[in-house]
């Protein structure tokens, strides 16, 4: 059997690059999707240097034509798709009273519409093949309410309930879709917070594990859901947050 193939969005840096490398280490051929070509080619080189297979496809997940090209290029190269990881995401901290339309749409266009476009495209391939798995990277902010993050919390809540509904449809054709809900992991997305020692201390105090996660820990969970989890596990959201959402 030829090796399994995964598309990972937002694979050029942060959690997405760790997920792509984790899948590649398990022998999965990985299609790296993201907006910044230089980031993608750096991750691609690292995977190739470790003996893996990767292909960079510059993609804006908010653009339907770009998403179509991503899936077409992947299928042209690998002739199959086994796994989609919807990881591309953006955040923003603005009080609701100051949240303008553009900021609301910026967050929803990537976190919700981008996830929808990619999942719909993968679903067509999975239905034809009678198998396939998608993993959506949500957030503990999709399970909890946090002041200043209304748009982000709402977008990740949408990802979590999208996952439930899509799972109910996909079960008929033998495919699974689950979500992970990360707590804090040190990446560019929270660089501003981490530059503020007092604010970081406040965050760490409310995490029972008193630390941020290591991207490799998230990559392990996503790899498990993509490759090893039982077929009967679908529609679920697994928090990986040092206990933040359990208290
Ligand atoms: N780090 C955390 O603490 C944390 C916690 C909870 C959830 N998450 C979620 O985890 C995911 C990854 O976050 P991260 O921490 O790795 O953030 P990050 O370092 O800021 O990376 C975000 C990634 O998303 C990509 N991206 C953004 N908009 C895109 C678009 N329109 N089309 C294609 N790619 C796009 C970026 O690609 P470019 O570089 O090309 O722009 C980048 O690769 C996000 O969904 C985030 O909400 C992160």
The CATH superfamily label reads NAD(P)-binding Rossmann-like Domain
- Specify the helix fraction band: 40-55%
User: What structural class results from the helix and strand content?
Assistant: alpha/beta
Roughly what fraction of the amino acids lie in strands? 15-25%
Taken in chain order, the helices and strands follow as: EHEHEHEHEHEHHHE
Largest sheet: 7 strands, parallel
CATH class: Alpha Beta
CA radius of gyration: 17 Å
Annotated CATH topology: Rossmann fold
- Termini separation comes to 45 Å
Helix tally?
Answer: 8
On the 0-100 scale, what is the average pLDDT?
A: 98
Can you tell me the CATH architecture?
A: 3-Layer(aba) Sandwich
Low-confidence stretches: none
Count of the separate structural domains: 1
Main sheet: strand order: 3-2-1-4-5-6-7
Written overview of the protein:
A seven-stranded parallel β-sheet has the order 3-2-1-4-5-6-7, sandwiched between helices. The protein has a single domain, classed as 3-Layer(aba) Sandwich (Rossmann fold), CATH 3.40.50. The mean pLDDT is 98. It is of the alpha/beta class. Helix 3 packs parallel to helix 4. Helices cover 47% and strands 15% of the residues. NADP nicotinamide-adenine-dinucleotide phosphate binds next to helix 1 and helix 4.
């Amino acid at each position: 059997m030829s090796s399994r193939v995964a598309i990972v969005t937002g694979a050029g840096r942060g959690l997405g690059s760790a997920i792509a490398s984790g899948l590649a280490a398990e022998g999965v051929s990985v299609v790296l999707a993201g907006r910044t070509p230089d980031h993608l080619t750096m991750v691609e080189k690292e995977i190739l240097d470790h003996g893996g297979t990767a292909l960079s496809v510059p993609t804006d997940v908010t653009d339907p034509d770009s998403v179509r090209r991503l899936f077409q290029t992947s299928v042209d190269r690998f002739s199959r798709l086994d796994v989609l990881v919807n990881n591309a995401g953006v955040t923003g901290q603005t009080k609701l009273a100051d949240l303008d339309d553009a900021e609301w749409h910026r967050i929803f266009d990537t976190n919700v519409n981008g996830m929808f476009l990619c999942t719909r495209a993968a679903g067509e391939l999975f239905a034809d093949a009678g198998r396939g798995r998608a993993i959506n990277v949500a957030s503990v902010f999709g399970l909890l309410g946090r002041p200043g993050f209304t748009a982000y919390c709402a977008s990740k809540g949408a990802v979590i309930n999208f996952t439930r509904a899509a799972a109910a449809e996909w079960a008929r054709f033998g495919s699974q879709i689950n979500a992970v809900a990360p707590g804090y992991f040190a990446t560019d997305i929270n660089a501003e917070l981490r530059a503020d020692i007092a604010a970081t201390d406040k965050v760490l105090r409310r995490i029972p594990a008193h630390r941020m996660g290591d991207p490799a820990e998230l990559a392990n969970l996503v790899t498990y859901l993509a490759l090893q989890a039982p077929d009967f596990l679908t529609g679920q959201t697994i928090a990986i947050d040092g206990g933040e959402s359990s208290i």
